[in-house]
Design a protein that fits this description.
- It is a single chain.
- The chain has helices spanning 10-15, 18-22, 65-68, 73-77, 120-124, 142-151, 161-169, 228-248, 253-275, 283-288, 297-311, 332-356, 422-432, 454-457, and strands at 53-58, 95-98, 105-108, 113-116, 129-136, 179-182, 208-210, 316-319, 363-368, 372-373, 376-378, 385-386, 390-395, 403-405, 407-408, 415-417, 420-421, 441-444, 447-450.
- It is an alpha/beta fold.
- The chain has one domain (36-218, 283-465): Alkaline Phosphatase, subunit A.
- The longest helix has 25 residues, at 332-356.
- The radius of gyration is 23 Å and the shape is globular.
Length: 467
């Protein structure tokens, strides 16, 4: 099943529900690259599936799997000895000997999944997560590995899985963007907006960044010296002019979308401040996320906002970090301690909060980076990049609870059992959302583009991950 490129009328395009379309509903999709912020409003009832929302807690830099999720006693046993075997090393001139993890691992929960002492809060939710230890990627370079895990492609300019998700599902709240990005107030991540681009999909499927501070959405709040009556008159005049133009060109979907966007932007002026007002949350909820602790407060605030967004019908939310703090080429021990102290509690709190509110079954939470680290030292106390093994966890949305999938060799260097490629991961995430990765396509350069591009990747869903 494919999406044709014949334009619809504005009303038809904005009423079409993407998931219903993919499930067998007939209809057509306009191919114009619309520049509005928001996705289409869905009027048809979507087909039943486990999940209809995603929160991605992305960890730029490549978290060290053998220090956090993948206990390897052999590393400790052979600490300081030369590594016996071949390694793909990003910085070979700095390669050292085997580097054992300095952190204690403990089996947690009824599932008995082993986790590092750096993740005490994740340990409390371990029976609610799927821990995937055999993830592989195809690049050891940050930028291309980031593009792979976000878009399934090495090159820049392709749609991210957030954009594909919104293209497939539409939106459930006409007052907010369907795809929201919560950026780090300290700065942008490596590869900048390419992490949430819509690529060749229409621009309305691109992530909308919300910043910290009094103006989370640029150009949303009207100037203080413009009276409400004046702004209302401006919008009314603009709507009248656009409506008159639409009558002359009834098939112009881009113009119809622009009219809708002005109306939604006006509603966002009320919806966004209410969304970000965390004083509405109980003291217990704020403490759960660590808002009372300077170390966890900032990340905790964004995790709490993410929950409030999906609670209000936003389909896809991503949290990013400044730069790439998990890129531990040096000071691996110290860096991991600092990162986990900041991120562990809020991440676990998000899962706990979603669960107690009855939102976890319909919301996928993913905690992941772009690749893993090597079992040897880089320099004195760092770890180099590793494309052959990585760990991530998933919660909610139909994923199995208290389940560990995949395994690596004795040193944590290579995935050896139940290997999950980035493309398999994408196919499985789409399946959890009720979307078929083989059918979610869009015309591009004379062929049907998709997230997994099965002609090249041979991507498959991983049924064992889904409950």
């Amino acid at each position: 099943m494919t999406h044709a490129a014949t334009p619809q009328t504005g009303d038809q395009q904005f009423a079409q529900n993407r998931r219903a379309f993919l499930g067998g509903t007939t209809g057509l999709l306009g191919s114009a690259a619309l520049t509005q912020l928001l996705s289409t409003a869905a009027s048809a009832e979507p087909q039943r599936s486990s999940a209809d929302a995603v929160i991605c807690l992305f960890q730029h830099g490549g978290p060290s799997q053998m220090d956090l999720f993948d206990h390897k006693p052999e590393l400790t046993k052979r600490h300081g000895q030369p590594y016996q075997g071949d390694l793909d090393i990003h910085f070979p001139n700095q390669a050292g000997n085997v580097l054992g993890s300095p952190f204690k691992f403990t089996r947690r929960g009824e599932s008995g999944i082993s986790l590092s002492e750096l993740l005490p809060h994740t340990g409390r939710i371990v029976d609610d997560i799927t821990l995937v230890r055999g993830v592989t990627t195809e690049s050891v370079d940050h930028e291309s590995a980031l593009r792979l895990i976000h878009s399934g492609k090495f090159e820049a300019g392709y749609p991210t899985w957030g954009a594909w998700t919104i293209y497939g599902l539409g939106t459930a709240n006409r007052n907010l963007p369907a795809y929201v990005v919560l950026t780090d107030p300290q700065g942008m991540p490596v590869d900048n907006i390419r992490n949430w681009t819509s690529g060749y999909l229409p621009a309305k499927y691109q992530g909308v960044p919300f910043r910290s501070g009094p103006s989370p959405v640029p150009n949303l709040v009207k100037p203080a010296d413009v009276p409400d009556t004046a702004r209302a008159s401006q919008l009314a005049l603009l709507k009248a002019l656009n409506s008159d133009q639409l009558k002359r060109h009834p098939g112009n979907a881009e113009l119809a979308a622009r009219i809708t966007d002005f109306e939604v932007a006006a509603r966002m002026q009320t919806a966004v401040p209410e969304l970000l007002d965390l004083s509405q949350e109980t003291a217990a909820t704020q403490q759960l996320y660590g808002l009372d602790n300077p170390t966890t407060a900032e990340y905790g605030r964004r995790c709490l906002i993410a929950r409030r967004l999906v609670e209000r019908g936003v389909r896809f939310v991503q949290l990013f970090l400044k730069g790439q703090p998990w890129d531990t080429h040096s000071n691996n021990d110290k860096s991991l301690r600092g990162n986990c102290a900041r991120i562990d509690q809020p991440s676990a709190a998000l899962v706990q909060d979603l669960k107690q509110r009855g939102l976890l079954d319909r919301t996928i939470v993913m905690w992941a980076g772009e690749f893993g680290r090597l079992p040897i030292s880089q320099g004195k106390d760092g770890r180099d990049h590793n494309q052959h093994a990585n760990s991530l966890w998933l919660a909610g949305g139909g994923f199995r609870r208290g389940y560990s999938h995949g395994a690596t060799d004795d040193f944590g260097y290579k995935a050896v059992d139940d290997i999950v490629s980035v493309h398999d991961l994408h196919a499985t995430l789409l399946a959890a959302l009720g979307l078929n990765h083989r059918e979610l396509t869009y015309p591009h350069q004379g062929r049907l583009g998709s997230l997994t591009d099965i002609v090249i990747t041979k991507a498959q869903t991983v049924p064992a991950l889904l409950g």
